[in-house]
Design brief:
2 copies of one chain form a homodimer.
Chain A: E1 5-6, H1 16-25, H2 44-61, E2 67-73, H3 76-87, E3 93-98, H4 101-110, E4 115-121, E5 145-148, E6 150-151, E7 156-157, E8 169-172, E9 189-193, E10 203-209, H5 226-231, H6 241-256, H7 259-280, E11 284-285, E12 297-302, H8 308-317, E13 320-321, E14 332-335, H9 342-359
Parallel strand pairs in A: 1-13, 3-4, 3-5, 5-8, 8-9
Antiparallel strand pairs in A: 2-10, 6-7, 9-10, 11-12, 12-14
């Protein structure tokens, strides 16, 4: 069947070679006579798959040796709870920066476990900007400073990790991990759900500096306990093996693309040309401060909102699908993760110009 | 490649037609132009897949209308925490029956959240029997009575749900759900990880009577909150969509097999002939009280333990794999879930007889 361009925010498009490999492996994995779906997580075949995925991820992100890498069931929402449960470490307060919908979710969940200081908020600008770092008020007694590296819905992205004033810096990188190089050593903890740049939903990757673990709050569910998961190779419970395998295919593909610098260059080209197309015509608009526009999620509006429905219908006809904005904000949105080919962005831009010509 | 017979305890063998359908769908799902792996959980295509899986499961298990069915990230180990977090409902005590390794795990986790009364334990018999129901001591003030319907490691299975003395009855059915009919109306809650009879790991199915939810303990992670998950169709967070889809293929396949009575008849035949083969030769032994032997997991020993290594090696040569016992107990084990064809059991029995003839 003809493949379309899938601009869904997650679960989202996967690279064609990854799908092809997964399909081929469903005939049976190597000479085992079974598929990866049927492998015991304790058997040497799966252990090999898991270790290679972990090693490739370490290599791509240049993760220092004093960081643990965990593959855990559930996505970022589960980590919204796991992070304070593990990282409060006897303190009572945590600091969060709010840059939109997902920051607010993380804050609400953290409030179940401790006092949350909101160090800065983009709310006044309706989350179209990020308050400059010098204006942040970070409590030195907080257990950590948390921010959302990319807001999938609002389309706001940090272009560099903020200064943490000596606190452990914690980042939700669900929607931009592996899209650019990151200096992991600046972080206490990085977490990301997998369904954008790492494959299938139901899996989160957690990268945590080892001195921060081991003091989980009483009442922390065992499967959420980073120390136990680190000690048992993410196998306190049966891990989501198939999603881990797909994560391995994703990082392998990324290495074949030339690694993070190469994928970043492509992501910059894709984003720049799409924003340029939006800015060039008053028919389209993106409200975000250009300095913090997301390379991954590009929300936009039509000057005449009544044209959104025909826009979506005609785009779908043209093989450009899932361009609806999030139900909380409306409008339109193009998610252009690593796996979205540059041709997909070019096709969207051509369609947008043509639609404006006919309807503008 | 030639498929082997995979006796792994979980993740475990899947039906060949399910694998074939999954493989075919990786070309693209129907006319969407994308695969199920790439579908937004909020889109109508995935919602259709999820609703059909849920409806098929309801039909197979004849789940009454006053029960919610949830598809949650994580497996049974996550539910070991979620069950007391949701079902304590202002009480302080819970009652658990211990029948082996997995009961003990569930008990240890429940102790993080409340006082656990062990109503009965098979420990004195080294977990080869289940204490008769009249000997159980069930506290009438307990929030619920929990038991493990099938012990995957010890090979002990309840042949009927126990009387609960008016308490909500809670069962971990991870390794025998969908292997036989169950009278759901007798239970307060049934949970099961998916990686035996429902497909891929990283997913748990929870079936809960609706009057029991809505009183989760303070500090319950949102993704563990049954009320919220029930209200939002298991989408408080992005669910493990691909595992949910495979669960749908599994229940569809089960319906094609004739439903639970038909699969039960096949499971009885498979188990009876395998136990008969073990009992017929002093060379093999199974320690479990015949009244509570598991139809799903058949542990066995060789009279001469030194022969286990050659047994495993020669079995593998003969296309019979993953027969190692659990690392906590050693010995051998054949897991014969729904997806293990009767021919696989026949092949194992032939091999066992032949091995005994040569080495006995």
């Amino acid at each position: 069947m003809a493949r379309i361009y899938n601009f869904s925010p997650g679960p989202s498009v996967l690279p064609a070679p990854v799908l092809e490999k997964a399909r081929e492996d469903l005939r049976g994995w190597r000479s085992t006579g079974i598929t990866v779906m049927e492998m015991s997580h304790r058997g040497k075949d799966f252990i090999g798959i898991a270790e290679k995925a972990t090693a490739d991820l370490r290599e791509l992100l240049e993760i220092p040796q004093n960081y643990k890498v965990l593959f855990l069931a559930g996505g970022a929402s589960a980590q919204f709870a796991a992070v304070p449960l593990n990282l409060l470490r006897g303190k009572t307060k945590v600091s969060y920066v709010s840059t939109g919908y997902w920051s607010e979710k993380a804050i609400a969940e953290a409030r179940l476990f401790g006092e949350v200081q909101v160090s800065a908020s983009g709310k006044e600008s309706n989350f179209t900007t990020i308050p400059p770092r010098p204006q942040w008020n970070v409590d030195p007694d907080a257990a950590y400073l948390h921010y959302t590296a990319n807001e999938t819905i609002g389309g706001v992205e940090f272009q560099a990790a903020p200064e943490a004033d000596g606190l452990p810096l914690v980042a939700d990188m669900s929607s931009n991990i592996l899209s650019r190089p990151v200096e992991v050593g600046r972080f206490g903890l990085i977490y990301a759900s997998a369904q954008k740049n790492i494959g299938l939903p139901g899996l989160a990757v957690v990268i945590v500096r080892e001195d921060l673990i081991g003091q989980a709050l009483p009442g922390t569910p065992s499967t959420f306990d980073y120390r136990r998961q680190a000690a048992e190779g993410s196998m306190v419970n049966t891990p989501p093996t198939y999603s881990w395998y797909v994560a391995g295919l994703m990082v392998e593909w990324l290495k074949e693309q030339g690694g993070l610098k190469a994928i970043e260059a492509r992501n910059i080209r894709k984003a720049e040309k799409l924003y340029a197309a939006i800015d060039a015509l008053p028919f389209y608009s993106n409200p975000v401060d250009p300095a913090v526009r997301s390379r991954m999620n590009v929300p936009f509006h039509l000057a005449d909102a009544a044209l959104e429905t025909p826009f979506l219908a005609e785009a779908k006809e043209a093989g450009l699908a899932y361009l609806e904005g999030h139900r909380s904000v409306g409008g339109l949105r193009a998610s252009i993760y690593n796996a979205m080919p540059e041709e997909g962005v070019d096709a969207l831009i051509s369609f947008m110009r043509e639609f404006e010509r006919k309807r503008g």
